[in-house]
Design brief:
Strand content: under 5%
Radius of gyration: 20 Å
Order of helices and strands: HH
Shape: elongated
Number of domains: 1
Largest sheet: none
Distance between the termini: 45 Å
C-alpha cells in the first residue's frame, strides 16, 4: 500500500539542519522527522518516569502532605 504524501514548506535553514542530522546520505527527510518524533516521545516518557520517581522520593523524605503543586512543576 502506497502511503499518501504531502508537500510542506521548510526554510532553507531547517533543511540544512535536517541534512546535518541524517544518519546516512540517502535517508529521506520523512525518516529524519519520524526519528525526531520518536526521540521526542521517548524523552517525554523518560521525563514522566523521572518526575514520578522524584515525587515518590519527596513523599518518602518529607512525609505525607499536599503535593498537588508538585504535579505541575
Amino acid at each position: 500500500m502506497v502511503e499518501e504524501v504531502t508537500t510542506i514548506q521548510l526554510s532553507k535553514s531547517v533543511v540544512k539542519m535536517l541534512k546535518e542530522i541524517k544518519k546516512y546520505p540517502r535517508e529521506t527527510y520523512s525518516e529524519v522527522i519520524q526519528d525526531l518524533i520518536k526521540t521526542s516521545q521517548e524523552a517525554k516518557e523518560f521525563n514522566k518516569f523521572v518526575q514520578e520517581a522524584q515525587k515518590a522520593k519527596m513523599k518518602e523524605l518529607w512525609g505525607e502532605g499536599d503535593y498537588s503543586a508538585w504535579e505541575h512543576a
